[in-house]
Amino acid sequence: MAFGASDGCCSFSHVLFPGCELTARTKSYTFQVDEEDDSDHILALSVVCLTEGAKDECNVVEVVGRNHENQEIAVPVANLKLSCQPLLSLDNFKLQPPVTFRLAAGSGPVHLAGWHQILHRDDASFEEDDDLSDEEEEEVAPIMPAKKQRRKQ
């Protein structure tokens, strides 16, 4: 399922991310896009849930990405247990690919689902909006200091 929209300079596409399943055999899944793609991509994670065959044990799902120094960083996003919390809604938690989902504890199966949002830029209009001329910058009035007011005695 896919749908899209346009705002003049950019067009948006939303594609259903059918998800992935993490198990004792398949502990991780990496979502990535083509490196040559100029579009901006966002993966919005909406739900994490235990599926048929899950044991009553803690199943911890981590999101693994990279920080600004290109070091791997892992953050737990869900701790599911069949008897008390088999499902967690993440309200379209936004992630920027590439991103890896990892089953850090438990044997699953854990299913993850969400949306893949793609922002396609119209290069000509995008460049026009980004280039501010010197004339436009000079039109901004300078900020003047406030005048001191005298107190009446």
Topology diagram in text:
Elements: E1 2-6, E2 10-22, E3 28-31, E4 40-50, E5 59-66, E6 72-80, E7 87-95, E8 99-105, E9 110-121, H1 123-130, H2 134-138
Antiparallel strand pairs: 1-2, 2-9, 3-8, 4-7, 4-9, 5-6, 5-8
Strand order of the largest sheet: 1-2-9-4-7
| Averaged pLDDT | 79
Question: H/E element string?
Answer: EEEEEEEEEHH
Number of helical runs? 2
What is the molecular shape? extended
General description of the model:
A hairpin with a 3-residue loop joins strand 1 (2-6) and strand 2 (10-22). The relative contact order is 0.29. By secondary structure, this protein is mainly beta. A 5-stranded antiparallel β-sheet has the order 1-2-9-4-7. The chain has helices spanning 123-130, 134-138; strands spanning 2-6, 10-22, 28-31, 40-50, 59-66, 72-80, 87-95, 99-105, 110-121. Residues 1-8 and 124-135 have low confidence and may be disordered.
Which key terms come to mind for this protein?
153 residues; mainly beta; five-stranded antiparallel sheet; four-stranded antiparallel sheet; 2 helices; 8% helix
In short:
With 153 residues, the protein is mainly beta.
